[in-house]
Automatic annotation (TrEMBL):
Annotated Pfam families: HTH_31
Region (Disordered): 215-247
GO molecular function: DNA binding
Cross-referenced InterPro entries: Cro/C1-type_HTH, Lambda_DNA-bd_dom_sf
UniProt xrefs under PROSITE patterns: HTH_CROC1
Protein name: Transcriptional regulator, contains XRE-family HTH domain
Endpoints of the signal sequence: none
Domain (HTH cro/C1-type): residue spans on this chain: 12-67
SUPFAM superfamilies: lambda repressor-like DNA-binding domains (SSF47413)
Amino acid sequence: MTSDDLPIGRRVARWRVRRSMTQQMLADRLRRSKSWVDKIERGARTLDRYSVIQELAHVLRVEPEVLLGQPQSTPAGTPDGVDDIRAALARYDSPEVPPQTDELRRQVGHAWLTYQHAHYGQLVRVVPGLLDAARAAQRAEVLVQAYRITSSVLVKLDEADLAWLAADRAMSAAGDDPILAASATISVAEALRANKRNPLALKAALPTANRLLPARSHPVDHEVGGSGGDQLARQPHDQRGGGGGAFAAAGSPGEWAVGGTLLVQAALAASGCGEYRRADELIERAAGVAASLRGYDDTHRTSFGPVAVELARVLVAAQRGDAAEVLRRHSSVVRREGWRRLPAEYRGAYLVDVARAYLHLGDVRGAARALVDADSVAPAEVRCRASARTVIADVARAQPAPAGVARLATLVGLTR
């Protein structure tokens, strides 16, 4: 029997032994009983929840695909297929027979999961057909989702102009639906930031967030485009959404998550403009929204929550050049429970950004650790993105080059 043929419980047991852990040690780190671990390893208890498999994989320091017996190899280099996506975006005709709506929703859901697991090569092959099917169905919600997925993967492949086009198509498809339009605005802001158009990203994200979130969560004066945060009226923390009941009478948690994500995008855009005070204020508002959310169905694929807000704080501190705050906040946030629950794509992208930040702060070892961690979480974030390869090249120039980064440099075809 090969390792791929083993039941998942046997794989768990093998990796536990490789990590020199007893069943009790594994149980303690999972905050479960030794009996639970024993039943999993014997196959007496079924592992049928991916979130639990992710927890096990994290503790055993392997990818979930290893426990599932799925191939894990991630080739270096940008995946082929961008031209096919470009051609799909240029098509205006649709298949004569539209797919069933339920089947199309299933395809969209699978595409999002593929993206969140950072399987960009696989997603690039799927996107053209998904766009054709979504156009044929003429269902606004699935069409917006399809264009947003397309925009997101194009940002990952450093095709920012094409990503902006897909995001703009998502906005058009949203029509008069305010929530669909707001979720599409997330993609618009991401694409604009990828295009280094931070002022435009701020102008897109902030007014939409203000329209979507309850009146008590933002100041009355929310003019966009000023020179700093002084234009934002001051409010007590409990009037910015800090309390758990601040949003009880307005909207759904999913809508608040979209609004909170837009605030995070606006904060990152403000930071990119050098408006650090304004960025801090926007993050505080986002933190208030996140504090009011207690579990929700993330139908708009935002991954928003307290940890996402803390990651934004780290990135803003890095852009401000505050090395002490970066070190303190980063080391703290990656130990939080919510960190492990974020999609692999989200964590990998953040770690590459942190590596870039450490490099700018002169901490080559910190940058190397972040790159190696990113590669273990989401290999495609490191090996398939030109922007990540630039960071690898910069870190690899150190003398001597950190071993892990030297290996990555070889994998992606870089020479020192």
